[in-house]
Amino acid sequence: MKWSCLSIVLLAFALARAQTPAEREAKLGLSLAQTGACPEALPHLKKARSLSRDLKMEIGNAGVRCAMLLNQVDDALDFLRALRREFPRDPAVQFLSVHVFSDLSIRASQDLLFTNPAAYQVHQLNAEALEAQGRWDDAMSEYRAILEKNPKLPGIHYRIGRLILSKPKTPTTFGDAKKEFTEELSIDPHNAGAEYVLGEMARQQDQWPEAIEHFGKAVQLESSFADALIGLGRSLTAADKPAQAIEPLQHAAKLQPGNPAVHYHLAIALRRSGNKDEADKEFAVYKQTSEQARQLTHNVQAGVLGPQQVDPQEQQQK
Fold first, then answer.
1. What are the chain's domains?
2. Backbone CA torsion sign across 40, 41, 44, 45
3. pTM above 0.85, yes or no
């Protein structure tokens, strides 16, 4: 390629300032990247090692940008992984991650659409996009179209069931949704999510034996399913079996120690089973985690909206 006078000057200046061979490699790659010569820059950026933190940040950013421009996805992910490993909480790296993953998602969607337009996955991708927009009926039509061609495809009845529950409630909502989740389990008996939702619907209707059965199956399928453990514990307590509720709730508390709800329900189960001292300890943890959750919500609102836009009533409670 032809080099401009400015490019040559930048390159010479960068190489003159570089001290070690690693720094010279890095500076050469950065200078080439700054002039838009990504095909030439990328090999040097990939070789750059043992650098200062500032140079690692520059190399990572330049490497991601050049690799994405050249559609070299593996290289882009390698640079991004290095940045996330070195700067795990840096907002600039987090922001870059969002854009890279978003861009890769769009590219993969386009690749699927152009190379396999008749595949059922195209319908599913469209359905998921419609679902995210709250267009429940349109999304359901896409899922139904998938089932017409693939009636035994796992996961689709589950998604339809969730859509039914997302729509405004009607007298038949739970019945219609239950039918879909039951059908899903006939296709995929290992779908813990379907068991969990069936348990949650039964719990909301005070059908404790059915709720306990479904939550129990969900936990058997996924032993670390915290929400199912909480649902199981709540249902056992409500069914006047608080002693049996303690174990699943304690397990959930280990999985989600910062979740106020699990500590609250564990405290209730302990108290109803006669363990007053342990119950008091859990109530104290509940209050502590509730305050931490409230403070986190306040901090997020203040960060997004600004301190002046946060609910004045919440400010007074603080």
1. 8-106 (1.25.40.10)
2. negative
3. no
Place of tokens 């342990």: 278
* DSSP line for 125-169: HHHHHHHHTT-HHHHHHHHHHHHHH-TT-TTHHHHHHHHHHHSPP
Alpha helices in the chain (DSSP H): 5-17, 21-34, 38-47, 53-69, 73-86, 91-115, 120-132, 136-149, 156-166, 173-187, 192-204, 208-221, 226-238, 242-255, 260-272, 276-305, 312-317
Q: At what angle do helices 276-305 and 260-272 cross, to 10 degrees?
A: 160
State the pLDDT at residue 243.
97
| pLDDT (0 to 100) of residue 116 | 94
What is the per-residue pLDDT for 301?
75
Unique residue bearing structure tokens 């650098």: 51
Name residues whose C-beta falls within 8 Å of residue 284's C-beta, 6 or more positions apart in sequence. Answer: none
Residue 273: partners with Cβ closer than 8 Å, 6 or more residues away:
242, 243, 245, 246
Given this model, what pLDDT does residue 142 score? 95
Q: Residue 39: which of 76, 74, 70, 8 has the closest Cα?
A: 70
Q: Which pLDDT score, from 0 to 100, does residue 1 have?
A: 46
Structure tokens at 227: 């929400």
The pLDDT of residue 26 is 84
Q: How many CB atoms lie within 10 A of CB 280?
A: 13
Residues 6 or more apart whose Cβ sits within 8 Å of residue 237: 245, 265, 268, 269, 272
Dihedral sign of CA atoms 51, 55, 57, 61 in order? negative
Query: Do 210 and 174 touch, CB atoms closer than 8 A?
Result: no
Beta-carbon contacts of residue 80 (< 8 Å; ≥ 6 apart): 60, 64, 96, 97, 100
Which of the residues in the chain have pLDDT under 50? 1-3, 8, 15, 18, 315-318
Contact 108, 82 (CB under 8 A): no
**What's the rounded Cα separation, in Å, for the pair 93 and 59?**
12
